[in-house]
Amino acid sequence: METRIRLTVDGRQRETSVDTRTTLLDLLRERLDVTSPKKGCDHGQCGSCTVLLDGRRHLTCLALAVAYDGSEVVTAAGLTGSEGDDETLHPVQQAFLDHDGYQCGYCTPGQVCSAVGVLRELGEGHPSHVTEDLTGPVAADDDELRERMSGNLCRCGAYPGILAAVREVAGQPAGGIA
Amino acid sequence: MSAVEQPVTPLERDAIRSVGTAHPRVDGPLKVAGRAAYAVEHREAPYDARPLHAWLVQSTVARGRVLAVDAARAVAHPGVVSVLDHTSAPRLQEGEDRELEVLQDDRVDFRGQIVAVVLAETSEAAREAAGLVEVAYDEQSHQAAFEETEDTYEPETVNPEMPARTEEGDVDGALAGAAVVVDATYETPVEHNNPLEPHAAIAHWDGEVLTLADSTQGVHPVAQTLAPLLGLEQAQLHVVAPYVGGGFGSKGVPHAPEMAVVLAAMTQPGRAVRLAVTRQQMFALTGHRTPTRSHFRLGADADGRLVAIEHEVLEPTSRWKEFGEQTAAPTRMMYAARNRRTGHRLVPLDVAVPSWMRAPGEMPGMFAHEVAMDELAVACGLDPIELRVRNEPDVDPETGKPFSRRGLVDCLRRGAERFGWSERPAEARATLEGDWWVGTGVAAATYPAMLNPGNEARISAADGGHYDVAIGAVDIGTGARTVLQQIAADALGVDASCIRLRIADTDLPPATVAGGSSGTASWGAAIVATAQRFRADHGDAPDPGVWTQAEATDAQSEDHALHSFGASFAEVRVHRWTGEVRVPRLLGVYSVGRVINPVTARSQLIGGLVMGMSVGLFEESYRDPRTGHVVTQDLATYHVASHADVRDLQVEWLDEEDPLASPVGGRGIGEIGVVGTAASIANAAFHATGTRVRSIPVTADRFL
Amino acid sequence: MRELDYHRADDAAGAVALVSGDPEASFLGGGTNLVDHLKLGVARPRVLVDISRLPLDQVEEVELPGDSGGGPGLRVGANVRNSDLAAHPAVRSGWPVVSRALLAGASGQLRHQATTGGNLMQRTRCVYFQDVTTACNKREPGSGCSAIGGYARYNAVLGASEHCVTVHPSDLAVALAAVDAVVVVLGPDGERRVPFEELHRLPGDAPERDTTLAHGELITAVELPASAAAATSTYHKARDRASYAFALVSVAAALELDEAGRVADVRIAWGGIAHKPWRARVAEQALLGAEPTEERVAAACADELADARTSEGNAFKVPMVTAATQHVLQSLQGGRR
């Protein structure tokens, strides 16, 4: 069964017909040629397909596209900005570069999106598994960042560089991370 | 274009300007923005039309014959184009690699083997139709349990071409007379490489040329391997792999899925066909590390000097294609002892073919050896570092050659200093902090410095003082694209910004696999040799357009033993109630020759340590012996380390260069981080709890 | 995945009518489990009824109705996302075990997607259940249980049957079992309330049924009664990886001591032990009125585990869940939650 849906993807309105079986990930990668979200497991177990969906980090492999009609999707490619003709990187992306927070790069767009989401969740005071005092404020310390990023696997083992990148951006004023 | 042979001389120290500097990764901006195109993401010609989607159908029996493939329901599914099976797939030429004989006959050699391929207009249709293909089998009995069987045999060689057995002196006599003997068996499980990008390729056949964008560690090796089987000239295979989402050995040789997508494309001339192997399918089709059982006997005199080393390995291979992991290889060169014996015996099983996984041989072998050394230290009442120092050989025990550099003791001492080893209590189970038993452990690491022949580079002068440097090397995340630019710059005596590097394409000069920690040395040697020849032929101010293509000779000393060394130090905490194991600190110190780029090198070594921790704590595939099926076939049941597992993790390298090992002065860094790490964790867990664990992964249940 | 009809529900009653009237229809919530099963071929519905946009997304402090025990409590809409429930201030202070259990589960991304109702309806992660090329009575009744004699690390030790030996994967469900939650269910004939312990079932000879709900019945809310014990509660999940891993075993516990340090109220539930969250009533009874010393907790757990049946692959769960229970009760005595 085919259904028409509308999405905003990286700032662009996209209207398309989808098979009701199509996942958001396959819609992006195979129909809309948005290949920044990666397919690492197609099974909710690696985080490579993470995007920001209506502002929150979200897996696209366990989402039927038809159920997200009207949503706004921002992928890692959509986090970049522009200055004149030049593409500018989001502060999180720049920090990944500065700390070599990747090797093969396949998990990287998902890590970047997840990091942006983590910083927002910290700003909203969401606790995590390692938050000692559930009723107090949450800190953006290393333990918190590691735990919160744990839904994004990196087989190259770039975790120390990724942590350094997220830590650096977490230390910036909130205006720098939105 | 033909290459000249060029005896290469190592980079002069005063020519080194870009090499050794922290050049940022040149492909970084594309990667962080998600704009680097991996295999099936290619949309340029000839992949620009909407490609067909291939989906693999796998056998559900471990051994037998396919009686019939009923594709009627599959073909009837909307969007399905065709279903290939062994009766309809294009015929291949005779070859010697059973793994690549995809859909050529009715024989089933292992559970999960490709028995059909569905082609459809969409991935949804392809996946659904794959489930609708009905395959009837004549099932035969199989052996999938790893145990001694009547068929166990000693191979002639183990990977790559090492003797299976070595013997020197009188091991049994020396053991009988030894003051201290450690006699124990160590085990490592089936492990899967699991790069984050599953194996994938998009293929296009125009009747003359097969174009393949592949996720591989070597484009030329893929073309060299597949072309003769397809009955094509190598020039008829155009393989590219500009971005590869990790490999760790599993993309080092072409596996069956690559052949499957190529065969499928050949049935659809003019139409691209894409195949993205699923994570689950990877557990059967893209290689794995075979489990190993290492029986060690170490004999030492009262002050810990080894008099005998025996390492007997039992490990499975597949019955239909031999792969003998060289598990005992590092034992042959690691420590001094006059009497030594190593051997490998293989148990043929009806299972998928084992293959390379990061540091084949060294990873499982050094786990066993380094836990055995820890046990020997305890038995002798010696500090484990001191024990290793006492057993340093003067020359390579196996070949008698001097080491170009034997950096082990320096690594151990530097690591001990940095890790605070002198504060360590001598006794096990001495420290309880809150709910955690705390201990520390050490293990040595080693890896050979390999330099592969068969690499060529081409350097062309361009306008504006630029140089085009081309070689078919592949960057699987190692940083090759960055470090080869640095090497070329120094070899030509120009700034790195003057180098325009092209890689990862069979249209470029041939290159060997990105594996065995050999890439930078092997490709770098070709680039250095070519630069030297280029300058000799064209001078320092070449006219634009002139070029040289050369292959390096005499790139590595034959008179020396060439090995990297390292030491890993682990702090392990074991939960006193639940036994859960965590590694709050991990330090690796390495002797690897010259480091070409400290940014990418640090990431490589860190990545090795992380994987070493991961195999030490988590990784284990369960192959159900009743069916030969790896049932833990996803990332929730095959755990790899997550962010939360990696805490204070540091690497350091000694400041050195090794022109005997390679013209760039380095010995390779890709694998050594994964060697020894699991042993340091098991040794630290013993120190924390007093419980000796002789197999990995070191899981919570061992401490209850 | 079969070809699918998709309906977005406008209201809960309509959704219930659609699904209850069609044996091949399924509710679609956050999708984290069902979409996976569609791709794996584990679930093959013909019709999906999307309930994810129904306005069941509020957490409200309420006086609970009489058939939920009355008194003050919390009403959690079935579509409240796991991340939002874990972060809710009332949950963090009044039912910390619920926050802790949610935060121990899955990943940040999945917790944004997964709903309260869907979390409870998620199905086992048994490797054989998820693999349609193997026999599994839960997936295909009568085909056999591959987990018996196979991969056993995650298998149940209590309440299993010859037909199924798997465990329930939810962390949240273990916490809700410990705090005596009540599940509000809408069916074709109206609403009913199900005490949490009666929601999930043991496999017996019908392992295809995870819960006592009929096809087409929809969880619309979960009600949490307030108590002193619930406010002193916590969760420990023992797992191989430090994060993003299913439990080997887990313990949810709530504890109230009297002035003499004796147990006035205790609730203990175990995860990773059985086909349902295992409320350890026998152990609770053994501890009431006594000082919860290490030895006494061990003895209470031994009573609870008297009928445990293990194989080589999962025998560790018996000492592990005992030790984890000792640890959790000790932590609660120390004021940690």
Automatic annotation (TrEMBL), chain A:
All copies of domain 2Fe-2S ferredoxin-type, residue ranges: 3-79
SUPFAM superfamilies (alphabetical): 2Fe-2S ferredoxin-like, CO dehydrogenase ISP C-domain like
Claim: Glycoprotein is one of the keywords in the record: no
Protein name: 2Fe-2S iron-sulfur cluster binding domain-containing protein
Metabolic or biological pathway, per its Swiss-Prot or TrEMBL entry: Alkaloid degradation; nicotine degradation
Organism of derivation: Nocardioides flavescens
UniProt-listed Pfam families: Fer2, Fer2_2
This protein's UniProt keywords: 2Fe-2S, Iron, Iron-sulfur, Metal-binding, Oxidoreductase
One MF annotation (Gene Ontology) recorded for this entry: oxidoreductase activity, acting on the aldehyde or oxo group of donors
Membrane spanning stretches: none
TrEMBL record, chain B:
Organism: Nocardioides flavescens
Domain of life per record: Bacteria
SMART domains: Ald_Xan_dh_C
One Pfam short name: Ald_Xan_dh_C
Name used for this protein in its record: Molybdopterin-dependent oxidoreductase
Keywords: Molybdenum, Oxidoreductase
Single GO MF annotation: oxidoreductase activity
Location of region: Disordered: 1-24
Domain Aldehyde oxidase/xanthine dehydrogenase a/b hammerhead: 33-141
Chain segments annotated as coiled-coil in the UniProt record: none
From TrEMBL, chain C:
Domain (FAD-binding PCMH-type): residue spans on this chain: 1-229
Key word Oxidoreductase present: yes
MF (Gene Ontology): FAD binding; oxidoreductase activity
Keywords on record: Oxidoreductase
InterPro entries documented for this protein: CO_DH_flav_C, CO_DH_flav_C_dom_sf, Diverse_Substr_Oxidored, FAD-bd_PCMH, FAD-bd_PCMH-like_sf, FAD-bd_PCMH_sub1, FAD-bd_PCMH_sub2, Mopterin_DH_FAD-bd
Coiled coil residues, start to end: none
PANTHER family named in the record: OXIDOREDUCTASE (PTHR42659:SF1), XANTHINE DEHYDROGENASE SUBUNIT C-RELATED (PTHR42659)
Name of the protein: Xanthine dehydrogenase family protein subunit M
Species: Nocardioides flavescens
